[in-house]
Each structure stands twice: as structure tokens, then as C-alpha cells.
Amino acid sequence: MRFERCRMLFGEEDFAKITQASVLILGVGGVGSYALDCLYRSGVHNLTIIDYDTYDETNQNRQIGSDAVGMHKTKTLEKLYPGIHTIDQRMDLAWVEAFDFAPYDIVIDAADTTSVKIAVARKVYPKLIMSLGSAKRYDSSKIEVASIWNSHGNALGRKIKNELKKSKFDRNFTVVFSSEQDKCKEKGSCVAVTGSFGLMICSEAIKKILSR
């Protein structure tokens, strides 16, 4: 049976929680695509992904589905993971304001735009797992999970914390981050880290689902 090993691990009652959970993934690049793969293989049936990009040759070092250069990510991943729901949509502040997050038990933010990440955090913080910067690094042992306020050594995390503090926002939400110092100035990346971010996010999502 496809999920026999998952049932052995979680037990029937907890595995039923996983199969019934509804998860939304914002962005399916180097982090989000691995979170998708992990959740799909772990038995989450109700998965929705949102992205607007097409694959570029430079994505091929880290993104699942990126052999389909020139194709939309959502359409490609829909074929690789039958049964998922896809929304081909550019995410901006207006979209965050208008979108209904209520149907989802877990929201995974693997988006790239800082202003969007902040807006999402303010709107859905109780069920949010956010990916902070995973580029410019290659040491996956430096990856950590914490409240946004306890993240450290990460430029994107500092920026998000500063912006939230300015707006008097003090609520907690979960982030996956790396304290490893940047190894380059440009957007160099290694799947050992970006993929590990996605897998760590999947693990955190499962723990949240089982704790409900």
C-alpha cells in the first residue's frame, strides 16, 4: 500500500488527521517544491499551491519540476502531483488582502517578496510556517526552527522583525531559518539548504497538524 509506512509511523488516528488536513503553499520554488513533495508523500490529500512563475534554466539546481523550462510551475507540478489544487496567481499586497485563507489549516510561506511575507504574517500568524532566507548558504546543519522573535543571524528575519515592530505587531509565528553567514553577494543557492528548508517545513506542518 502506498502509505503503509506512514500508517506504521503515525498510527491510524494521527494518519487520518494528516490525510484530512488542508495545507496552502505560497511559492513552489527551491523551498516550496520540497515542502510540497514531502507533504504529498506523507499523505496530505488537500494541498493547494500558489505561484505565477515559469521555470528558467537557472532553477534547475534546486527546484523540483524545473526540467520543464518555460512552463508554468503550477501546471508542471499539477502533473507531477496528481490531485493537488493549483492557483496560477501573482502574489502582491492586494492579493493578500483579498484572499480567503480561512479554509486552510496550515499556511506555508515560501514566497520571495518581503512585503507579501509581512502581510501574510499579519493576517494568518496562528497557522503560519514561514521560510526565511535560504539562498547564499550550503551548510544545512545551520537550519533552525523558532518563533520569528527568536530567529537570529538572518538578514531577511531581521528585516521582517523590524517592520513588524514598527507596526506594533508582537504575535508569534513559526519560522525556518539559517544562521549561516552569507557565502556570496548574489543569489547563489544550494539544494542541500533550500531543499532542507522545505523538508523542515513539512516536518513542522505535520507536527502542527497532529497537535490539533
Structure, explained:
By secondary structure, this protein is of the alpha/beta class. The chain has a single domain, classed as 3-Layer(aba) Sandwich (Rossmann fold). Helix content is 40%, strand content 16%. It is built from seven helices and seven strands; from the N terminus they run αβαβαβαβαββαβα. The protein has a seven-stranded mixed β-sheet with strand order 3-2-1-4-5-7-6, sandwiched between helices. Helix 2 crosses helix 7 and helix 5 crosses helix 6. The longest helix is centred in the last third of the chain and has 21 residues. The radius of gyration is 16 Å and the shape is globular.
> Got a strand count?
7
Low-confidence segments, given as residue ranges, are none
Spatial strand order of the main sheet:
3-2-1-4-5-7-6
Number of helices: 7
Termini separation comes to 26 Å
SSE string, helices as H and strands as E = HEHEHEHEHEEHEH
Please bin the fraction of helical residues: 40-55%
Question: Mean of residue pLDDT?
Answer: 96
Q: From the 3D coordinates, which CATH architecture would you assign?
A: 3-Layer(aba) Sandwich
CATH superfamily: NAD(P)-binding Rossmann-like Domain
Shape: globular
Secondary structural class: alpha/beta
What does the radius of gyration come to?
A: 16 Å
> If you consult CATH, what is the topology?
Rossmann fold
- CATH class category name: Alpha Beta
Structural domain count: 1
Largest sheet: 7 strands, mixed
Proportion of residues in extended strands: 15-25%
